[in-house]
Hints:
The chain is mainly α and 125 residues long.
Amino acid sequence: MSAWLVYVAIGIASGVAAGLFGVGGGLIVVPALIYWAGFSQHMATGTSLAVLLPPIGIAAAFEYYRNGNVDVPAAILIAITMFLGAWIGARLASHVSGPHLRLMFGLFVCCLGVYLVYGAYERLG
Length: 125
């Protein structure tokens, strides 16, 4: 499959996930770039961050805002502090080997998954 088709598939999958669940960058784009496009961990992370620049979320955020589902002051504060946090994280990541970074990412996703499944199970029971 040509590279542009892989990128289109990644974009559609992550866009749907972003619209449905508010995720897409780290949870969809990074693993997809690694396993479908052959990117290194660092290249996938950097590319994912470039994808997440403001134009990507505008349409979905506007739709949620239109339906009264956006806390604007919270979003602004989180965006400002996320800017600083992303810079700190990128600086730290540049000092970690690719395999170690991938391991850390995998552990993060697994822990997050367990937390989400446990919380959902508790609310169902």
